[in-house]
Specification:
Layout lengths: L4 E4 L2 E4 L10 H5 L3 E2 L2 E6 L2 E5 L1 H15 L8 H14 L5 E10 L10 E9 L9 H4 L1 E9 L16 H13 L4 E5 L5 E4 L3 E6 L2 E4 L9 H12 L3 E4 L4 H5 L3 E6 L3 E8 L2 E2 L7 H14 L6 H4 E3 L4
Parallel strand pairs: 8-9, 8-15, 12-13
Antiparallel strand pairs: 1-2, 1-7, 3-6, 4-5, 4-6, 5-17, 6-7, 9-10, 11-12, 11-14, 14-15, 15-16
Length: about 300
């Protein structure tokens, strides 16, 4: 989990020298914004999957957080991502942009100045390659997703992910791979870093955007499912609806597309990847690696200026 250079405010810095001060406000209070993006190796060279959409969400998260006078444009950040990948000579990698605040300690963001770092490194599927076929063993967490008026849940704000770390750590310590998080009303929201889908009677269902982060991979899945001819519904989901699903799967940039084989010790469907999940997973990888119908609009070649 290391490469040669990290982009820091316009300069490519050796990995071990890309540091910030101990009293950086983001370290103490969490007002940072990040993105997770992937670059895939294709027959035409490395290409970033939906880079423009990810950078747009990055900027929107910064806006939601309330940072003023942000110094970088969308085009500058897109270029910075590509420059960082090229500098590290990677054909396939995970990409992590982070906006963090620098300045005096305190809770007033207006006393701080925003900075940006971009790291890239080789990183396989988040839940492991085996999970892509075998599926994840999951639980419903006792921790609740953040209330939308407690934290800005439409933004990838660093401090929000303390909730995800609590959920993930509890799941792993309890012998599970991942966990489902319920919203404050008790409906299914999402997982620690993934959106969630279920299949019942050939209909694909996913929680509406009001309760979840607007996942870029989630949006890709909705497009691919419709293109494959499936009916897709966005509606409230209860945990017991997941128990009786024919199939269920999660999606995210880090995880990609992973089936759920069991939830709360209940086998989901056949207990392995289902036929609809398999089709969507294959369509996702085809498009991410330059072989799909949407590759031309979803992939951003790294070598292009």
């Amino acid at each position: 989990m290391k490469s040669d250079f990290i982009w820091m405010d316009g300069k490519l810095i050796p990995w071990d020298q890309a540091t910030v001060h101990f009293l950086t406000p983001t370290l103490h209070y969490g007002p940072g914004v990040f993105e997770g993006i992937r670059c895939y190796d294709t027959s035409n060279g490395p290409a970033v999957f939906r880079l423009k959409e990810h950078i747009q969400r990055f900027l929107e998260s910064i806006h939601i957080l309330g940072v003023q006078d942000f110094p970088y444009t969308h085009a500058e950040l897109v270029k910075a991502v590509k420059d960082t990948i090229r500098a590290n000579n990677l054909r396939e990698c995970y990409i992590r942009p982070l906006m963090f605040l620098q300045g005096p300690m305190g809770l007033n963001m207006d006393n701080s100045t925003p900075s940006v770092g971009i790291a890239v490194w080789e990183w396989g599927p988040y839940l492991g390659s085996e999970a892509l076929e075998r599926g994840a063993n999951m639980m419903v967490s006792s921790f609740t997703r953040l209330h939308p008026n407690v934290a800005m849940t439409k933004a990838k704000i660093a401090g929000n992910y303390v909730n995800s770390m609590l959920v993930k750590t509890l799941a792993l310590r309890s012998g599970y791979d991942e966990a489902v998080i319920l919203d404050p009303q008790g409906f299914v929201a999402e997982c620690t870093g993934e959106n969630l889908f279920l299949v019942r009677h050939n209909v694909i269902c996913t929680p509406p955007l009001a309760t979840v982060l607007e996942g870029v991979t989630r949006d890709s899945i909705l497009t691919l499912a419709a293109d494959l001819g499936f009916t897709v519904e966005e509606r409230m989901v209860t945990r017991d609806m997941l128990y009786i699903a024919d199939e269920a799967f999660i999606s995210g940039t880090a995880a990609e597309v992973v089936p759920i084989r069991a939830l709360d010790t209940r086998i989901i469907g056949s207990g392995k990847i289902g036929p609809i999940t398999k089709q969507i997973q294959q369509a996702f990888y085809d498009n991410a690696r330059g072989k799909g119908k949407f590759s031309a609009i979803w992939l951003d070649p790294v070598e292009a200026n």
